[in-house]
Amino acid sequence: MSIGFRAAASGSGGNSVSVTIPAGVQAGDSLLLMVYVNTDCTITTPSGWQVAKAQQQAEAGGATAAIFKRLAQTGDASTNAVSTNDGAAGVKAGALLIAHSGTDTVDPVHAINSRLDTGGTASVPTPAVTTGVDGCWVVEMCTTKSSTTTVWSTVPAGSTSRVSLIGTGGGHVDGAVADRGPVTPGGYGGGTFTQDANQSSAISYTIALAPKTSTQTLRPVSDVTVGSYTAVPTPGAGVALASRIGEAVRDDNSYIQTPNAPSAAVYEARLAAGQDPLSSDDHTVTVVLSTAGGATSSSCAVALVQGTTVIRSQTFTDVPATPTVYTIDLTGAEADAITDYADLRIRFTWTAA
Questions:
Q1: d(CA 348, CA 313)
Q2: Residues in CB range of 302: below 8 A, 6 or more apart
Q3: In what order do the strands lie in the sheet with 263-271?
Q4: CATH level 2 (architecture), domain 220-352
Q5: Which CA distances in Å does 7 have to 76, 217, 239?
Q6: What is the average pLDDT value for the chain, to the nearest integer?
Q7: Lowest mean pLDDT among 84-98, 104-118, 133-147
């Protein structure tokens, strides 16, 4: 899934600025919010948002700005993102929001950089960033302080203007956002925002959004229920049995084994914490099973468990002596039943024939 522009919005105010998240925003979209004020002040982080770039001041008495980020949740559309500041009465402030689909669901911001300018020109350069991931999307933002600007004339070459705002009155602040993508790994930024009059100070940003990864693998990381199970090779003191089956590269010489002649013998391991992929598709449990120790065959019930709730259980019978890969494909309903990807476990219940 590639990144795509979803929507944009703006808002203006004084000691409080509110931006309505566009109605078309969907859960999992990345949200970037630039908040800016025309004087030295402290900008608060909107509730539920994170700082992507801490606030900066272009110069004493100049513009102050900060960048915030959020992964959209169900119900975010048409709600307000509100930021306040402690500037003196009469301050002028603004905010611009841009949303994209298809971004990484852990942290959409792959790279970010900023540039401060003391003004005197109608052009504002953007800073450079370097991307190391194919398919990133480049977002450039700019805010200026001026008393005479009336329009944004151009945005960085190759980019599309998504949202802009011109303030009013003396010492007002303006904002603009443009983006482009997808791009190959390399250096980006260095473009120019221009206006129809000189500004007295400016802050610009270049942000690279990372694309959503196609695969997320949650491996066993700790023991929940051990019983009489043992591990081969024997782990050191304090080392979980799970370490023998949580390797990134399959190794059939490293494994966990049941007690002799098991009868409904249980071993359960906690899986590494994951992120909700916000999708009902492509959830697969993969295990490697084998029968050993002289048994002619065995059966194993493999269960994916969240806390104490079994999401899916499937029994494999006549497990052979040769290590064999078995998979369980979750249905959409089963995937939707997972509500906490930080509390998933894998449970094995073995019985010898």
A1: 10
A2: 285, 287, 289, 313, 314, 315, 316, 326, 328, 346, 347, 348
A3: 220-225, 263-271, 344-352, 298-306, 309-316
A4: Sandwich (2.60)
A5: 13, 31, 49
A6: 93
A7: 104-118
pTM summary value:
0.65
| Distance separating alpha carbons of residues 26 and 109, to the nearest angstrom | 18
In sequence order, the 6+-apart residues with CB closer than 8 A to the CB of 199 are 117, 119, 120, 121, 122, 124, 144, 145, 146, 149, 174
Residue 19 structure tokens: 């931006």
Whether residue 1 is predicted with pLDDT greater than 70 in this model: the reply is no
* DSSP element (H, E) containing 123: strand 123-125
Give the largest CA-CA distance in the chain. 88
Using alpha carbons only, give the angle 271, 273, 279 rounded to the nearest 5 degrees: 100
* pLDDT, mean of residues 75-102: 96
Residues forming a β-bridge with 310: 305
Contact 297, 307 (CB under 8 A): no
Q: How far apart are CA 67 and CA 105, in angstroms?
A: 18
Give the tens place of pLDDT for each residue, 100-113. Answer: 999 988 789 999 99
CB 201 within 8 A of CB 230: no
- Sign of the alpha-carbon dihedral angle for 79, 54, 123, 210: negative
Domain ranges in the chain are 4-209, 220-352
Condensed to tens digits (0 to 9), the pLDDT of residues 286-303 reads 999 999 877 777 999 999
The long-range contacts involving 252-255, CB below 8 angstroms and separated by at least 24 positions, are 252/288, 252/323, 255/231, 255/288, 255/323
- What whole-number distance in Å separates Cα of residue 296 and Cα of residue 298? 7
Using 50, 70 and 90 to split pLDDT, how confident is the model at 119? confident
Summarize pLDDT for 291-340 with one digit per residue, the tens: 987 777 799 999 999 999 999 999 999 999 999 999 999 999 999 999 99
**C-alpha–C-alpha distance, residues 29 and 102, integer Å:** 7
According to DSSP, the residues that pair with 141 across neighbouring strands are 177, 205
